[in-house]
Fold 6-phosphogluconate dehydrogenase, decarboxylating.
Amino acid sequence: MNSKSNIGLIGLAVMGENLALNMERNGWQVSVWNRTTEVVDNFINGRAKGKNIVGCESLEDFTTTLETPRIVMMMVRAGNAVDEVIEKIVPYLSEGDILIDGGNSYFKDTERRVKDMYASGFYFVGAGVSGGEEGALNGPSIMPGGAAEAWPRIKPILQSIAAKANGTPCCEWVGPGGSGHFVKMIHNGIEYGDMQLISEAYFLLKHLQGMGNAEMGDIFARWNEGKLKSYLIEITGHILLHKDVTGAYLLDRILDVAGQKGTGKWSVINALELSIPLELIATAVFERYLSSEKLLRMIAAKTYPRKKPEVVSNKEELIEEIHQTLYAAKLVSYAQGFGVLKKASETYDWKLNLATIARLWRAGCIIRSTFLDDIAYAFEQDSNLENLLLASHFSKEIQEALPYWKKLVATAAHEEISSPAFSSALNYFYSLTTDRLPANLIQAQRDYFGAHTFERVDEEPGKFFHENWTGHGGNTKSGTYNA
Ligand SMILES: NC(=O)C1=CN([C@@H]2O[C@H](COP(=O)(O)OP(=O)(O)OC[C@H]3O[C@@H](n4cnc5c(N)ncnc54)[C@H](OP(=O)(O)O)[C@@H]3O)[C@@H](O)[C@H]2O)C=CC1
Ligand SMILES: O=C(CO)[C@H](O)[C@H](O)COP(=O)(O)O
């Protein structure tokens, strides 16, 4: 063992423990500390036994075991816990030390922490980490942002432990302030969207064909060999085939109430703040809320009993419809997610490189997929691309999928099977590709009842008019602004 550790890790739950083992495996000596010290003992005497990992009982001891300037990574519960740990460790730190928050922190908290820590002489980095337990151990995707001065020092460690896509580490500097955590937040929002879409595909296979788990598992395995190839499709195939100790399919025994820890909701709140459509992810978040209203749904199901859906006669055609719809709707979701990243980059002056971000997600993380290579390529060809659906490769894919997509959404609606994200994506696509939407009527209504003014198609943009619609209204206008 060296006299001093290269890095310190705080928080030994599933992510911290596995990241510490990953760092050690890659040649770094790691000191570890956890609020509940029993957890440290269990780790040191268990999975860390015989490894170059130093367990510490107190934060003071922990900081003395680290080479200086120190690098400390926190993997603790997001929120107040991060501030509590910072407050406790700062008295033992020296100027120039680096604190990395690898949890799912809210990016506005990270913005604040980066500023506060600068003022105290420390470098703070908000690094999104994705990949769950297995990624943390074998190579996650890492999205660091914040105090750029820290990057040359932390880069060798973080890039060594990150997943590699074609030999390139899925860890690159994202930008200043809270940008790393913002990118991770949108990653998770997209994760929500992907999971909702996959769940709808499963639901339609099950109810429009009465298919069993084994057959569906095979379909997902087949899809994982084509353009949908991704971690979430792969694990869905495994989940469908998994049996519990009684020999029954476990999936069928899991309560249909989805949990959430906040990153999907934050993605939607921030899309609203930035005025960028993120309907598919919003649908995924709201569907999780609706799923948790189990009792209400049970009552409503009795109030509105449904007929059993008609089995679709051509099984192979239905499978292809679902396959194409899943792809097209996923593309819409990524187009919306990257739209939010683009607007955030402009608004906060982060200068995000969208191609680099797509490349960071190619391996290690939960949304990893071959599809991200095509997204990276699209942004490399045109870094100002307004919307992914306008990239030539994707417009061809959408044109191929559209006949299947609209047929499936219509069938699901007709057979009274909920497929909210599939239809949200289709409606977004139709609105996006409509050059004259019915928003003229909304403007007329706003002006009619509140003198909110409107622009005219036969006048220059930016000139606002008010009509005396009833003949007895005045000429006084409301202010023209958008919030
Ligand atoms: N689980 C996952 O798949 C992923 C999680 N993340 C993020 O990584 C972070 C760690 O996640 P995970 O490993 O799942 O564990 P948890 O989110 O459950 O966090 C548990 C850890 O936080 C510590 N902790 C909680 N409150 C405090 C506090 N007030 N002061 C000090 N330490 C505290 C716990 O210490 P103690 O043992 O004393 O309770 C424990 O070490 C979270 O931000 C999470 O969102 C990111 C990617 C994937
Ligand atoms: O960050 C992650 C993966 O990248 C977590 O797995 C994710 O937070 C799970 O989110 P939720 O509990 O909200 O479904």
